[in-house]
Prior knowledge:
Layout: E1 4-8, H1 13-22, E2 28-33, E3 42-48, E4 55-68, E5 71-78, H2 83-97, H3 109-117, H4 119-125, H5 128-138, H6 143-148, H7 154-161, H8 168-175, H9 178-181, H10 184-192, H11 198-205, H12 210-218, H13 224-235
Helix pairs in contact: 1-2, 7-10, 11-13, 12-13
Amino acid sequence: MSGTEIVLEFGSTEELKAEFDQNLTNGGTLVQRKGDFFQNDECSIIIVHPADGARKTIKARIVMVADQDGEKSVAVAFDDFNSIRRQAIEQFIKEHAGTDDFDEEEENENEEAMFAANRLKTARDGEIADRIRLERKFGKAVWEELLKNPRITRGEVARIAKKGNLPVTLRRIILSNSGWMADAQVRRAMLSNTRMDEGEIRQVLRSVPQAELRRMSKDARTAPKVRRVALKMILG
């Protein structure tokens, strides 16, 4: 399927900003869609701005497809992505939102102090915009509480999972969640974490489809440690 269009629509500018922070800024995205999608096919990502309906088209390629709950989990990577293209996406979000205020929250000092004081409760119960602010501001101090939030998205989990300073206790929390392990984005993030030991890698790979496991065991782009464990699992 060449030239497939994947439209990204958002309920608010905050949701679009959250998607930028989680995925678009890294040169790709992950979507759930019905239909036929195939790895390595070319596609176009169309971002629809919620403020005015403006559309931005980005050429991309499908890098992974997995079945999930009757739909396809489709990961795409933007073509020739670099800092200039990242800035162009950011500028598109700013301009059509009618503001240049992309990263700064309009809060006074008292509100900021209250936000900091309630950070653990907000991490456990807060909405996505607050969770993103918390992770940016407090980092590892709020990771455990964020992972307890029932509304945390797979993209947020993946962003935490790849942190090199993620404690083993929190890695185990992620590894023990079958829903997260069924998500290709989370698995990739865990496998990219250089602190993972062989047992943890094996636990992730148990959730990988056999065809993908075979590919990983031979692919030079796969981290050597991961490739070795994948090969051991195939050989039994």
